[in-house]
């Protein structure tokens, strides 16, 4: 490795970072991560910290997952690449689809369409939803409904259904025909209540109103995260997703679960949808599907959608969509090994148990520090929302948030900040002692 000064200077000079202002790189250079082991990362200065971000909500099994590393190495030796476009396929891809169908059986998802990441998965699901209706003789069903504060990646389709202005405004105009409903956000919402069940009902009514106003026969799909991750870990009431599912069913609208973060155990259930007792028509996955070791994703497809695509003579029947890296054999091998390890280690149960401890610890911090306005989470995804005035719920300023971030790092734990939120999403294999370490470091950080 080159010396640290070279890396810092040339990062500032040559690298544009996602979700960052290029001009800030000189004044506020990113930490250079050099190595990782277990659930810890080490920076170029040799400081080792617990990774309470889990890479980027994706390294669910930690950094020392040998079976996944070995699968990648072996696949690179056997067949480093071949395409899955019509005419060819590869054995890891077939084996993976077979095991995914078993794994997602309880969600009613029977086919896979592979992608190279979360944004690709969202784009794929949106396109398949429109195509489904075209094949079905309802080509006018083109609109999408989504939630404010939802995050669905950065392609134009995903950005269009995103519910955060920061990811939209610089790139408008986006897709027309997208309707955003309120977020199921108990701490701040337009309904004058903090009762999550009432909020769920209020948003369901909004949805019904919009369906009546737009015309059900113009709406292709509703897309939502079972727990809104990047928008600040917004956990809806348990009735919310089932209410939305029921409205979708009554009006012939497809339901897309964006489980790029939630799938594979993060919420304490194997999928976020399963945790809420809902079977989506399409499910977007990525991130933890390869434990973050290889860019990969899959859209899981229900029997209902699959049968329309597989039994028609429609001129719209062929899938005119796909990526060079759809089903990359190295990614497929990584996913297969990850899936087996994820199951063997029963990480969903650990996420549920450790998540309860984490939330309790964070609530303890809230009782201690005025700066913490709200604490929320499910499984191993949690957020602290910082405020400068608790009564008025004034969002904390950038500096206050940065101070907590830096001090927590100094105390041995890296967290992520997004606006006024401190977000915690550690690997799902953390121990009770790791949870205590996260809470203690935050305690030192406030
Ligand atoms: N959907 C959700 C719910 C996400 O959280 C993300 C990324 O964080 C995406 C889509 C986009 O995934 P990617 O960054 O892999 O393109």
TrEMBL record:
CDD domains associated with the record: OAT_like
Keyword Nucleotide-binding carried by entry: no
Family note: Belongs to the class-III pyridoxal-phosphate-dependent aminotransferase family.
Alphabetical list of InterPro entries matching this protein: Aminotrans_3, Aminotrans_3_PPA_site, PyrdxlP-dep_Trfase, PyrdxlP-dep_Trfase_major, PyrdxlP-dep_Trfase_small
Organism, scientific name: Rhizobium grahamii
Record-given protein name: Aspartate aminotransferase family protein
Domain of life: Bacteria
Keywords, comma-separated and alphabetical: Aminotransferase, Plasmid, Pyridoxal phosphate, Transferase
MF term (GO), any: pyridoxal phosphate binding
Any Pfam family: Aminotran_3
Cofactor: pyridoxal 5'-phosphate
């Amino acid at each position: 490795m080159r010396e640290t000064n070279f890396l810092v200077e040339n990062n500032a000079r040559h690298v544009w970072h996602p979700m960052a202002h290029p001009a800030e790189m000189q004044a506020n250079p990113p930490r250079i991560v050099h190595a990782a082991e277990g659930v810890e990362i080490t920076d170029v200065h040799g400081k080792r910290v617990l990774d309470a971000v889990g890479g980027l909500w994706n390294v669910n099994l930690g950094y020392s997952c040998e079976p996944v590393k070995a699968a990648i190495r072996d696949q690179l030796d056997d067949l480093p690449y071949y395409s899955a476009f019509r005419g060819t396929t590869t054995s890891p891809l077939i084996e993976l689809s077979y095991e995914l169908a078993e794994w997602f059986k309880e969600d009613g998802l029977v086919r896979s369409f592979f992608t190279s990441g979360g944004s690709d998965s969202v784009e794929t699901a949106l396109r398949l939803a429109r195509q489904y209706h075209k094949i079905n003789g309802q080509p006018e069903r083109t609109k999408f409904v989504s939630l404010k504060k939802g995050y669905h990646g950065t392609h134009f389709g995903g950005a269009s259904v995103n519910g955060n202005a920061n990811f939209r405004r610089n790139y408008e105009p986006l897709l027309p025909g997208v309707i955003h409903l309120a977020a199921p956000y108990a701490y701040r919402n337009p309904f004058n209540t903090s009762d999550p069940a009432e909020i769920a009902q209020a948003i369901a009514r909004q949805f019904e109103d919009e369906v009546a106003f737009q015309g059900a026969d113009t709406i292709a799909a509703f897309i939502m995260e079972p727990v809104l991750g990047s928008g600040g870990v917004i956990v809806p009431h348990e009735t919310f997703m089932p209410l939305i599912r029921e409205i979708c069913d009554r009006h012939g609208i497809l339901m897309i679960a964006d489980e790029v973060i939630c799938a594979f155990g993060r919420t304490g259930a194997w999928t976020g949808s399963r945790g809420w007792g809902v079977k989506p028509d399409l499910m977007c996955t990525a991130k933890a599907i390869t434990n973050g070791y290889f860019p990969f994703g899959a859209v899981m497809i229900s029997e209902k959608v699959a049968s329309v695509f597989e039994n028609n003579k429609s001129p719209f029947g062929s899938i005119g969509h796909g990526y060079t890296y759809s089903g990359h054999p190295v990614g497929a091998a990584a996913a297969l090994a990850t899936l087996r390890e994820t199951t063997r280690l029963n990480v969903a149960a650990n996420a549920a148990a450790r998540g309860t401890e984490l939330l309790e610890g964070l609530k303890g911090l809230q009782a201690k520090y005025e700066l913490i306005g709200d604490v929320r989470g499910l499984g191993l995804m949690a957020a602290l929302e910082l405020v400068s005035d608790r009564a008025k719920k004034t969002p904390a300023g950038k500096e206050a948030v940065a101070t907590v971030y830096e001090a927590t790092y100094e105390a041995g734990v890296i967290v992520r900040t997004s606006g006024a939120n401190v977000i915690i999403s550690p690997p799902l294999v953390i121990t009770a002692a790791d949870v205590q370490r996260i809470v203690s470091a935050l305690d030192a950080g406030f």
